[in-house]
Design a protein that fits this description.
Blueprint (H helix, E strand, L loop, with lengths): L1 H20 L3 E8 L2 E7 L1 H11 L3 H5 L6 E4 L6 E6 L9 E6 L5 H24 L6 H25 L3 H15 L3 H13 L3 H4 L11 H17 L1
Antiparallel strand pairs: 1-2, 1-5, 3-4, 4-5
Helix pairs in contact: 1-4, 5-6, 5-7, 7-9
Length: 228
């Protein structure tokens, strides 16, 4: 079926695009749920090996805490492992293998492509067990947008980069025991002073954060103001 082929082909094309755009890159892959989902080049062997060992930058990045840049034991290769942010249940992980320590331009390209791969991974995971309905796709894209909006607010508040902002959101979500999606929606509402649906009336139905998430967002925003 075309639907079955679409997922892997989409990931392969995005990964190939990333490898072509990063000089000295010889492989890239995406993992989720403690396994390698798709990989090309050297990542075909390196990603699954780390999951089998239960150790390595890809496994460490799966905690969602931070982007990891490390030299590999062979002494000639580097890996950049980037946790995604498309779901509150745990990130996908993008791995990029290069023959040099990644430069600022390399990291910028990776940061541009990662959201596309994370969203594509989410679609494939949803489609693994059931047909993805149009409303599910809309909800998934909206959740991603809310998380990115919340990250932008935190970046401005703390004057930090995207990774540090995401880590701050994850910590707050865990501390208050609320979903990252709900916390993000609540933060957008608290800072914007109006429900998300009123701020973006043309985007269709949006997440309505529960009271616990709204309270968590208020406390988080106050705490970030003290830290900034």
């Amino acid at each position: 079926m075309d639907e079955v082929r679409f997922g892997p082909e989409l990931l392969d094309r995005l990964l190939a695009h990333l490898v072509e755009r990063v000089p000295g890159c010889d492989g890239a892959g995406v993992s989720t749920n403690s396994r390698s989902l798709r990989a090309i080049g050297t990542a075909v062997d390196r990603d699954p090996e780390q999951w089998r060992r239960g150790d390595g930058p890809v496994v460490a990045a799966a905690t969602g805490e931070e982007t990891l840049v490390e030299a590999l034991p062979d002494g000639v290769s580097w890996i950049t492992a980037v946790p995604g942010s498309w779901t509150e249940e745990g990130p996908s992980v993008l791995s990029v293998y290069t023959d040099h320590e990644p430069k600022e331009d390399d990291l910028r390209v990776i940061d541009q492509v990662e959201p596309l791969l994370a969203t594509a991974t989410a679609v494939i995971e949803f489609c693994a067990d059931e047909v993805l309905r149009a409303d599910q796709m809309v909800e998934m894209v909206q959740n991603r947008r809310l998380i990115e909006q919340a990250k932008g607010l935190v970046m401005g508040r703390l004057r930090c980069d995207s990774g540090a902002a995401f880590r701050a959101l994850v910590r707050s979500s865990q501390h208050f025991n609320v979903k990252l999606r709900d916390l993000s929606a609540a933060l957008v509402e608290v800072v914007g002073g109006a429900p998300v649906g009123d701020q973006e009336p043309d985007t269709g139905p949006t997440t309505v954060p529960p009271p616990a998430a709204v309270q968590a967002a208020r406390m988080t925003w106050q705490a970030l103001g003290r830290d900034g």
